[in-house]
Design a protein that fits this description.
The protein is mainly alpha-helical and 286 residues long. The chain has two domains: 154 residues; 122 residues, Four Helix Bundle (Hemerythrin (Met), subunit A). The protein contains nine helices and no strands. It is globular. The protein starts with 18 loop residues before the first helix and ends in a 5-residue tail after the last helix.
């Protein structure tokens, strides 16, 4: 979970900074962090994948903030490039999530044989990750796309004259998140909850981008939005794991263990639905 700080984030528009200058400066910060990832060989692959995905999401949030500044063709080109970068990392991220879910299920399994089976399958995810299309190469390609996109965006943005206001975009992000949450809770559809998570994540990044030194109310709001998107992420991961266990692991674990695992995941998803509903009630826009 992101912990708000009184020190302005390098990924935020600084106090009294014009939006156009802040936009280019944040792009430069993203590029610096992306280059550091290409140079750092000490961290684990999963950590590098996570850090790269966060940078991609921050760039998407920055692009969404300034969507009225760029033409539809420019926006589509940048979105397509970022989508390619994300897809390069998707398989590795999914394997890490699947392992985590299986390990959690193993701790709740009632029989020692079930625990051993789930742990064994969780451990096989490491082998699957190692053979998933040369993950290090995929990571480097994703970072290269990210850096190229940042460079092009910085060049184009310097010639733009019309920029949106922070309050305008933040208001829209709040409305989008609230509307998406209502639809998800009304339908109960996991796909709707996934869309809600995307909107909540975008709202979090808009808050971090536009509120360099948040007051007490905004600090609480950032914390709640962060917790909301985190719980919605857990919900989505559980939903994906449920489908994979039912479809992909039937040959590896017994039907009884499949049913037991699915039941545990459904209980977890029900609990998470209750939690996100409570969190969302307390997210207020000033």
């Amino acid at each position: 979970m992101t912990i708000p700080s009184s020190v302005p984030s390098p990924f935020a528009f600084q106090p009294d900074e014009k939006v156009d200058r802040g936009f280019v400066r944040v792009l430069e910060e993203l590029a610096i962090h992306a280059r550091l990832l290409t140079q750092d060989s000490r961290g684990s692959s999963s950590e590098s994948v996570h850090d790269t995905r966060v940078l991609i999401k921050r760039l998407r949030a920055l692009l969404w903030f300034a969507r009225s500044t760029f033409s539809p063709s420019e926006l589509n080109r940048f979105k397509l490039d970022l989508r390619k970068a994300s897809h390069l990392l998707a398989a590795q991220r999914d394997l890490v999530v699947m392992r985590s879910i299986l390990e959690k299920l193993s701790r709740k399994a009632s029989k020692s044989s079930d625990r051993a089976t789930l742990i064994r399958i969780a451990q096989t995810q490491d082998g699957a990750q190692a053979s998933a299309g040369k993950p290090d190469r995929s990571l480097q390609k994703a970072i290269a796309i990210l850096l190229a996109t940042i460079k092009q965006l910085a060049l184009i943005s310097k010639g733009k004259l019309r920029w949106p206001s922070s309050s305008e975009r933040l208001t829209q992000a709040f409305l989008d998140t609230a509307n998406s949450g209502k639809k998800a809770l009304h339908s109960g559809d996991p796909a709707r909850f996934h869309k809600w998570r995307k909107k909540a994540k975008r709202l979090l990044y808009q808050l971090q981008l536009t509120q360099a030194v948040p007051d007490n109310h905004t600090t609480r709001t950032i914390s709640r939005v962060d917790k909301l998107q985190e719980k919605l992420g857990d919900y989505h991961d559980s939903s994906i794991a449920e489908g994979r266990i039912q479809k992909n692991l039937r040959g590896e674990i017994s039907p009884r263990l499949v049913r037991h695992s699915v039941k545990l995941l459904e209980k977890r998803m029900h609990r998470l639905r209750t939690e996100v509903q409570k969190i969302a009630r307390h997210i207020k826009f000033k």
